[in-house]
């Protein structure tokens, strides 16, 4: 077994373990930290696949940005010690049923599809200068303006969520 295979299994195990811990943890701050471990391990998988750009985006945007916002919101609304209620039994079984059916559907789809390269389809070379110009551009195929609009929308929704969470009950 090569080191890449060992690292793949190690990162996959970390992702599966901390994913389960994220959704089953009853403490909110712990769930956010477990999510951070999942996102960092996912970036490790991108590094194994030699997708350094996606790995960097995963680390900076998701692990660095989103999780920090979640933890900041938890700490700001003083829900750090809040524990989630145990789910009702019927909700737990419905969740397990949805998980099993979703996993079966995904596996069936993956295993029944024949992944073959179609003849005549040429691969497009990856040019980092073109990707960088599109990410920073505001013209045709530019992503700077939509990114700024989405960031303002996320900021407004975060402020609104904090205001709602901090409302005192009468």
Overall shape: globular
Task: Give the CATH superfamily of the largest domain.
Answer: NADH-ubiquinone/plastoquinone oxidoreductase chain 6, subunit NuoJ
CATH-defined fold name of the largest domain = Four Helix Bundle (Hemerythrin (Met), subunit A)
How would you classify the helix and strand content by structural class? mainly alpha
**Into how many domains do the coordinates divide?**
2
Number of helices: 6
In angstroms, what separates the terminal alpha carbons?
A: 63 Å
* Beta-strand content: under 5%
What does the average pLDDT come to?
84
Please provide a written account of the structure.
- The protein is an all-alpha fold.
- The chain has two domains: 1-94, NADH-ubiquinone/plastoquinone oxidoreductase chain 6, subunit NuoJ (Four Helix Bundle (Hemerythrin (Met), subunit A)), CATH 1.20.120.1200; 125-170.
- 73% of the residues lie in helices and 0% in strands.
- It is built from six helices and no strands.
- It has helices at residues 3-24, 28-48, 52-76, 89-112, 128-136, 144-166.
- Helix 1 (3-24) packs antiparallel against helix 2 and helix 2 runs antiparallel to helix 3.
Features:
170 residues, mainly alpha, Four Helix Bundle (Hemerythrin (Met), subunit A), 2 domains, 6 helices
Summarize the helices and strands and which ones pair or pack.
Layout: H1 3-24, H2 28-48, H3 52-76, H4 89-112, H5 128-136, H6 144-166
Helix pairs in contact: 1-2, 2-3
Summarize the structure in short.
This protein has helices spanning 3-24, 28-48, 52-76, 89-112, 128-136, 144-166. It is mainly alpha-helical.
């Amino acid at each position: 077994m090569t080191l890449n295979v060992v690292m793949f299994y190690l990162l996959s195990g970390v992702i599966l373990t901390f994913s389960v811990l994220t959704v089953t943890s009853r403490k909110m701050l712990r769930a956010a930290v477990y999510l951070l471990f999942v996102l960092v391990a996912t970036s490790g998988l991108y590094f194994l696949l030699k997708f350094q750009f996606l790995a960097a985006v995963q680390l900076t945007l998701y692990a660095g940005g989103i999780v920090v916002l979640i933890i900041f919101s938890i700490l700001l609304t003083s829900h750090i010690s809040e524990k989630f209620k145990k789910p009702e039994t019927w909700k737990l079984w419905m969740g397990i049923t949805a998980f099993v059916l979703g996993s079966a559907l995904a596996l069936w789809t993956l295993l029944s599809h024949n992944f073959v390269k179609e003849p005549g389809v040429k691969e497009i070379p990856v040019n980092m200068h073109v990707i960088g110009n599109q990410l920073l551009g505001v013209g045709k195929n530019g992503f700077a303006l939509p990114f700024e609009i989405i960031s303002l929308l996320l900021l407004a929704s975060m402020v609104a969520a904090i205001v709602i969470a901090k409302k005192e009950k009468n």
